[in-house]
Amino acid sequence: MIALTRMRLAGFLRGGRAVAPLITVLVILSVLYGGGPSLAMHAYAYSAVCLFPVLAWLTKLVLDTEPDAQRRLARLAVGPFREGAGGLLAAVLLASVVCLAAMLAPWPFGAIAPPRPDTAEPSTQTGILLGILAHVLSTAAAVTLGALSGRAVTRRVLPGVVVLVSGSILVIVLGLTGSIAPWLVPPVMATAREMGGDHPPNAATLLVLVVWTVLWCAVALAGYAGLRRARS
């Protein structure tokens, strides 16, 4: 599986497919951190939300890089589980690199402000830890959505793009306050909302967000595995 993951990473990077997502990430980070300093918790909460559709797009590009015939041969050679897991692992590794760059980007430009004295604002260390959690949850949900929009599931380009775009929009719309069905989407917006306030979320709230993300990803990935098995 490691060799398969390396092959997919090499194909994605050498094929030039990484250029468009890279430019998009640079634009997003420039807009986010070009307007002045903010608390680490707030900055990273917004970063996790803004990167979500890009990470989902990145996942789709990684999974679609491999030709269909080669994917079927790999499935026969290593088995369906390892073949599918290899692609997801490649997407997770690339998404992790993007998230790491996003968390390091504001520091050289002084875009992270320390908490004001005599206030209840969270410390920078707390903001960094919460930012890591926000990006981990966003990455898990984004990789899952990107997998569902991959060619191995949708078979054609247009349906895959529809799944990717509509899924990204629904995550935002159904994640707004007062949504009629917030449980249909991962808590990307809910996480940013909880971390965008004046006080850091408590442990119970963080546990709810983590469990919510894990359950949503588990259900969606089970559907992804079933669709891949049926359409391969």
From TrEMBL:
List UniProt keywords, sorted A-Z: Membrane, Transmembrane, Transmembrane helix
Domain of life the protein comes from? Bacteria
Q: Where are the transmembrane segments?
A: 44-63, 84-107, 127-148, 160-184, 204-227
Instruction: List the protein's name.
Output: Integral membrane protein
Biological classification of the source: Bacteria, Bacillati, Actinomycetota, Actinomycetes, Micromonosporales
